[in-house]
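In the design runs reported in the main text, the only information available to the sequence generator was the tokenized backbone. The following block is the verbatim input for one such run; it is reproduced so that readers can re-run the procedure and compare outputs position by position.
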């Protein structure tokens, strides 16, 4: 819209502000924020486009002026276990540890770009003589050399020693440093064993040669390093072997001399004394066993005799033929005696004779038992004596071997030392032989997967990528700058901003008329220029007046006229609510279009039949008078002072019967300095209020002069003009603070010179896009300034 469509009442603002929102407030806020961001981008699009174009242009110039670089890549596979095939001692497969293997791959990647490897590349490809890697000295190099020369002189004066490098060393260091910057070694993945070696150069063939040379130098350095390590190890082992050999010989000699000195002769791994002790101890054990057996036999025989038991349990009795015969005879006699006793009775002589035989046989058996007892007693005594003799011999041998045991302890210690030296010597000898064998059989821990080919297209600069990044950076920085500029822009852009700044309703937004339209209307004045009397103190003909002074009247279907009618409606509404006839039109500063607004408002009121007069109240800078009647000699001052009647000074527009009270410039400003503060001006406005329906006063701006404040205190209503996208909010606020005593008379604000096409980037529904179908019946003439 171009004007507000509600009746403004300041008392309603708190109620409106406290009213609950309708619908989901969060969604509305997000939508409004997004719409505002889009609006900022659209209205500040030239900043974004300019910054982006600057970035893209600078990048394009950089790409055009930069020498292209070509990148060739070689790929190697680093195998931590590759060199194990040459290990003659490695019979078991080694287990793989990913953490250690990954660290090994990273270490090898660092080794590839080390100065040691790159020095071989520099020497092989003669990069010291290549200007790309050792550029000729420039101006800054000469300055740096001069400073270094001065520093060396100062160092010599102070007495400090500083190593001096030759020109060749400096060139080599420069070539290695530049080569290190043009080499990039990367691992293809965190778990991959493939390593890419990328070399960049201004020549594609040179880039391929460098990449392949780095691979060859890395392999050579890996093998050479291992060979040197093996040589150092073999030399160290050799020195250690000589020392260990002398130690082994000395230890063996010490053992043999100690053995001979203490008589520690050994056979089958033992000394003679140890063998005697072992044999005697075994014999003693055997004798002790035999003694125990003899004692057991003796106790058994003695127990049978003492208790008159059956001797059949004795082993001696069973093996003795005499005892066996007696026992058989005894059994036969006992049998016969039993048969005779059962047949003849116990007192029969034959029974008695049999019993006598039994007693004789029993006596013989007892005698045989006593003989066996004596025999076992003797055997027991012999075994006991033998055991005692063996124990005595063992004790004597043990007593004599105490000193030998102490010597054996020392001998065993010496033997252990000798055995340890033997073991260490054999181990070192085996490692020495293995190291010597591996000196000529070393493999690098990597192999070539693909060698570098000559690149076809340059890798730097990447024109498309650079331009895309520059465009993105330009868009990003342009967007940030656009937000920053928009945030710092304190000029009033929308009716809503005007209402928020002034706490007054925005009555209308008067659009900016295009320069072509203004030029066309100004050209019409030539038609009546010849007929115009330049000395006549009358109104200029309509065609000769400034193009915008009568625009609302001459273009009634334009948006400009619609905005003026909106101001007229607000003025009429104020008249209906209260007796408000005197309306002044002012602004914060000069050049905000207040005169054009006042003139078109007065013409619009007069055109609908209202008795209207417009008064040029800007006595110091009468822009209205210069625009409508530049030849007027008399005006407001004379009428207010009572020197002339209103009819003598007033000019009337024939088309609308609008009365104009001019204020021609004065050569003596002291006449008008106090006029607006005097009662004469008050009386003049009262008389005009009585004669006309509306008195429109074109007042001076508020900030430079106090005349507008004085006129506002005598007026019924005040219309405040604000130039769109020109007047800062602070200036408007200060002007309204100056009008605070008459705040109740402020009718509202009017935005002037509004570019409706740009307004759609701030407020779409108040722009020409929304109102276009109603402008000139679809043929709008309102346009922006080119």
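Verbatim output:
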């Amino acid at each position: 819209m171009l004007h507000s469509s509600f009746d403004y009442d300041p008392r309603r603002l708190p109620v409106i502000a406290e009213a609950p929102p309708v619908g989901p407030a969060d969604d509305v806020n997000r939508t409004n924020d997004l719409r505002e961001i889009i609006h900022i981008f659209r209205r500040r699009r030239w900043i974004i486009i300019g910054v982006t174009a600057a970035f893209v242009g600078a990048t394009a110039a950089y790409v055009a002026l930069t020498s292209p670089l070509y990148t060739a890549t070689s790929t190697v596979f680093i195998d931590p276990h590759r060199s194990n095939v040459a290990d003659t001692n490695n019979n078991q497969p080694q287990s793989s540890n990913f953490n250690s293997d990954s660290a090994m791959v990273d270490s090898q990647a660092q080794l590839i770009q080390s100065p040691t490897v790159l020095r071989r590349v520099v020497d092989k490809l003669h990069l010291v003589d290549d200007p790309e890697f050792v550029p000729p000295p420039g101006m800054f190099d000469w300055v740096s050399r001069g400073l270094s020369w001065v520093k060396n002189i100062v160092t010599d004066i102070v007495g400090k020693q500083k190593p001096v490098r030759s020109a060749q060393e400096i060139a080599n260091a420069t070539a290695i440093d530049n080569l290190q910057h043009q080499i990039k070694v990367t691992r293809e993945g965190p778990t991959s064993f493939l390593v890419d070696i990328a070399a960049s150069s201004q020549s594609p063939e040179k880039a391929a040669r460098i990449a392949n040379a780095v691979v060859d130098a890395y392999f050579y350095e890996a093998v050479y390093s291992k060979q040197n390590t093996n040589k150092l190890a073999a030399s160290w082992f050799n020195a250690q072997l000589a020392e260990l050999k002398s130690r082994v010989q000395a230890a063996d000699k010490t053992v043999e001399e100690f053995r001979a000195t203490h008589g520690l002769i050994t056979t089958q791994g033992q000394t003679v004394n140890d063998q005697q002790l072992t044999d005697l101890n075994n014999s003693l054990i055997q004798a002790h066993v035999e003694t125990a057996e003899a004692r057991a036999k003796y106790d058994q025989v003695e127990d049978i005799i003492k208790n008159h038991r059956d001797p059949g349990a004795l082993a001696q009795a069973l093996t003795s033929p005499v005892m066996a015969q007696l026992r058989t005879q005894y059994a036969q006699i006992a049998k016969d005696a039993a048969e005779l006793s059962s047949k003849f009775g116990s007192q029969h002589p034959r029974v008695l004779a049999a019993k006598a035989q039994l007693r004789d046989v029993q006596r013989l058996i007892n005698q045989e038992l006593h003989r066996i007892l004596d025999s076992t007693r003797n055997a027991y005594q012999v075994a006991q004596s033998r055991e005692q003799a063996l124990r005595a011999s063992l004790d004597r041998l043990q007593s004599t071997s105490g000193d030998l045991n102490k010597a054996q302890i020392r001998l065993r210690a010496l033997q252990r030392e000798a055995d340890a030296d033997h073991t260490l010597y054999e181990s070192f000898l085996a490692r020495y032989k293995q190291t010597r064998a591996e000196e000529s059989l070393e493999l690098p821990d990597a192999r070539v997967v693909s060698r570098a080919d000559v690149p076809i297209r340059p890798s730097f600069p990447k024109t498309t990528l650079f331009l895309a990044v520059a465009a993105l950076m330009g868009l990003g920085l342009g967007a940030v700058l656009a937000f920053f500029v928009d945030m710092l822009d304190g000029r009033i852009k929308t009716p809503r901003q005007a209402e928020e700044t002034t706490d007054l309703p925005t009555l209308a937004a008067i659009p900016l008329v295009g320069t072509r339209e203004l030029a066309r209307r100004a050209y019409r004045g030539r038609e009546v220029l010849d007929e115009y009397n330049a000395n006549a103190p009358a109104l200029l003909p309509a065609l000769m007046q400034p193009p915008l002074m009568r625009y609302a009247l001459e273009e009634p279907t334009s948006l400009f006229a619609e905005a003026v009618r909106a101001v007229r409606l607000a003025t009429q509404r104020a008249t209906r609510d209260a007796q408000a006839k005197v309306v002044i039109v002012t602004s914060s500063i000069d050049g905000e279009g207040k005169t054009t607004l006042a003139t078109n408002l007065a013409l619009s009121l007069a055109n609908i039949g209202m008795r209207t007069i417009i008064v040029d109240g800007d006595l110091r800078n009468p822009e209205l008078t210069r625009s409508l009647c530049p030849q007027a000699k008399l005006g407001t001052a004379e009428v207010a002072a009572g020197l002339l009647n209103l009819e003598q000074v007033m000019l009337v527009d024939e088309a609308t019967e609008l009365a104009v009270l001019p204020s021609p410039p004065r050569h003596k400003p002291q006449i008008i300095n106090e006029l607006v503060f005097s009662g004469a001006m008050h009386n003049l406005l009262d008389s005009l209020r009585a004669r006309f329906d509306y008195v429109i006063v074109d007042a001076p701006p508020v900030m430079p002069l106090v005349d507008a404040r004085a006129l506002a205190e005598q007026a019924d209503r005040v219309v405040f003009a604000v130039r769109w996208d020109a007047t800062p909010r602070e200036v408007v606020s200060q002007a309204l603070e100056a009008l605070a005593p008459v705040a109740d008379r402020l009718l509202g604000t009017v935005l002037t010179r509004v570019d409706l096409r740009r307004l759609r980037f701030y407020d779409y529904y108040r722009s020409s896009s929304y109102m276009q179908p109603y402008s000139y019946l679809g043929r709008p003439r309102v346009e922006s300034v080119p």
